[in-house]
Design goal:
- The chain has about 350 residues and is of the alpha/beta class.
- The strands form two sheets. Strands 1, 2, 3, 4, 5 and 6 form a six-stranded parallel β-sheet that branches. A five-stranded parallel β-sheet has the order 8-7-9-10-11, sandwiched between helices.
- It is globular, with a radius of gyration of 20 Å.
- It starts with a strand and ends with a helix.
């Protein structure tokens, strides 16, 4: 019989607070604790618990990354969450982001908001502690318990004919990313309802950081102070979508400005309508290298921050420079077929 939760604790767990937290989340649960991965862990509910010293380094963590990156499918059918406990004030989120991307490409799904991070003085829990009327460590404990519960209960919905929203900011004439999506779309049209929205017209304003109460007020009405294409087209499409696909050419190792603005503007809607039942996928094309950097930005922005759930193998990562070369890459048709089939498997009831 599988344990309720498998805890992967890379490296040496010397910190007392970290040890207390792991003990707390495992209380009254059947558990297995591993300090390293020596083989596949299929079909498990996993909590990755990573302690960091003040430098943000954990040598065992890098051994874990190496294992995940070189053994595709070793976490097939797993659902995961990540707890990072640091001595300093930096690196907890970057470690969590690296781990989620590597585990996802190894077959692990993640519910929305799968990272609980604790900096050395726990100041990142100040708001939660104030709202709950408790200490910083108690707020940390509640967050860790909530994450563990979400991992154990996670069961994303599936539809007979799911709705897919595709967001892009590219030109059809020259974009390798759009060319790959066009080939992928052909494989999905029979099983999914597909809506495409282009954000290339230059009228998309970025979020300017309204006060929380103002953002909440507009979000409850499905609106935003800045209006525009986000309110007219993107918000209604997001509400109706079972999955969102971001088409992400690599611009200077970053998401394009319009896609970034669109993600930022989702805050108003997120406050009123959580995205926990909406999947996020991505097609990332780099001219030279760095696709993993852009993919990790999608992970942190859409999954960790906005709360979209992350299906296993959520992204297609390709390298192509001149226009038209992506569709001629060796083996691209097979990879596109696998990517499209994965979308169908994650969202459709009849697959």
């Amino acid at each position: 019989m599988l344990p309720d939760v498998t805890v992967v604790c890379p490296g040496e767990a010397a910190a007392e607070r970290y040890a207390r937290m792991v003990e707390f989340v495992l209380e009254r649960r059947r558990s297995q604790i591993l300090t390293r991965l020596d083989g596949p862990l299929e079909g498990r509910r996993i909590l990755f618990a990573v302690p960091l010293d003040a430098s943000g380094i954990n040598c065992g963590f890098y051994d874990l990354l190496a294992r995940l990156r070189t053994h595709p499918g070793c976490l097939r059918g797993c659902v995961g969450g990540v707890l990072v406990d640091g001595d300093g004030g930096l690196y907890t989120k970057s470690v969590g982001r690296e781990l989620v991307l590597a585990a996802n490409l190894a077959g692990c799904a993640f519910p929305g908001r799968p990272l609980v991070e604790a900096v050395g003085d726990l100041r990142n829990f100040a708001v939660q502690a104030q709202n709950a009327g408790c200490s910083l460590e108690e707020a940390y404990r509640m967050a860790a318990a909530g994450l563990t519960r979400r991992v154990l209960e996670f069961s994303p919905p599936r539809r007979k004919r799911p709705s897919l929203l595709v967001l892009h900011a590219s030109s059809h004439g020259t974009s390798n990313t759009l060319a790959l999506w066009s080939r992928c779309r052909e494989r999905l049209e029979e099983s999914c309802e597909i809506t495409e929205i282009g954000l290339r017209n230059g009228t998309l304003e970025d979020c300017a950081g309204c006060p929380y109460t103002a953002c909440l007020h507009f979000g409850e009405r499905g609106d935003c102070f800045y209006g525009g294409v986000m309110v007219r087209e993107v918000y209604p499409a997001i509400r109706a979508a079972d999955g969102v696909i971001l088409l992400c050419p690599n611009y200077n190792d970053a998401l394009s400005a319009n896609l970034t603005a669109a993600i930022n503007r989702l805050t108003a809607l997120y406050r009123a309508a959580p995205f926990e039942n909406t999947a996020v996928f991505a097609i990332v094309v780099s001219g030279y290298s760095g696709g993993d950097i852009v993919a990790s930005q999608v992970v942190s922005a859409m999954n960790m921050n906005k709360g979209f759930w992350l299906p296993p193998g959520f992204c297609l990562l390709e390298t192509a420079n001149d226009a038209g070369t992506a569709v001629r890459l060796p083996g691209i048709d097979e990879r596109l077929e696998r990517f499209a089939e994965n979308i169908r498997m994650q969202l459709c009831t009849d697959v």
